Amino acid sequence: MSRLGEGLPLETGVPGVFLSPPGFERVIGLLRTGVAALAADEPFHRLVIPPVISRKTIERAGYVAAFPNLLGTVHGYGGTPSGWARLKPLVEEGGEWYAQQQIGDLVLLPAACYPVYATLADSALAEPAKVTVEASCFRQEATSEPGRLRSFRMLELVTVATEEHCLKWRAARLEQVEGWFQELGLDVSVEVADDPFFGPGRKLYQAAQRLQELKWELKVPVADGQVQAVASANYHKEHFGETFGITAGGELAHTSCVAFGLERLALALINRHGADSRQWPESVLAAFGGADA
Ligand code: AMP
Ligand code: ZN
Fold first, then answer.
1. pTM of structure
2. Residue 20: CB partners within 8 Å, gap ≥ 6?
3. Residues 56-73: pLDDT tens digits?
4. Pocket residues for ligand 1 (CB within 6 Å)?
């Protein structure tokens, strides 16, 4: 195999950051086609999302308070040219050249759906908003077992609407995605889950999340002895509707999203069927909507 790789992600020397060679991207492409086929039954608005988001938005959304350990912030040099003359030698010396870096107005995007809620801020929806988004996301994960990346791509189906719509929509999508994973030959289990809240009160938040079944995860083996969530189906109640001033049908809007981790799903499929998707069984390839590998 060439140094540049073929089917499996290439290590970069930093944990949780990989390069993606052509064979791996073919699998990611199949997944995009497959999710688009799943979503073809509703008129989704498709948005491509950049890997950064307004810091204020992410503060407002509650992410900083709940997951400060996972958030990647973006800093830049805010000093003077003469100040830099003093710091510059530190780069070569391995010193703290970054001592005067200042936080900016952007942070790294931690999940693909946040920009959707922010974009709908202060609006009154007459119909459910339905959006698909894909973005490179960043989370400063503390560990780097197989499937746990720091930079990864997330593909989401999102809806912003009434409570009734969001609950029904999520239940139907969860069932649909479970069935799809089975068609893909994946050994899937569906479990109530919680988010990794940080700091005081985290146990309480997690228990409340589980009790209200706000988060379901679809778990599959991604490597030998390693089972991970490859997708989640989330219901946020009126959290984002309230935060961003969105109404639906005259009430505060509710939101639901189904999030696919593209690298994790690709790893799970490769773990099950092999690194060369062109050799996968016909029935599996057909489950992507008949697309060629
Ligand atoms: P979450 O918002 O945590 O439910 O994440 C949605 C999906 O993104 C998960 O089900 C995973 O498939 C994927 N994901 C989340 N965190 C990571 C990570 N650290 N590395 C790779 N994929 C991830
Ligand atoms: Zn989401």
1. 0.96
2. 9, 10, 28, 263
3. 999 999 999 999 999 999
4. 111, 139, 141, 147-149, 152, 154, 229-232, 259, 261, 263-264
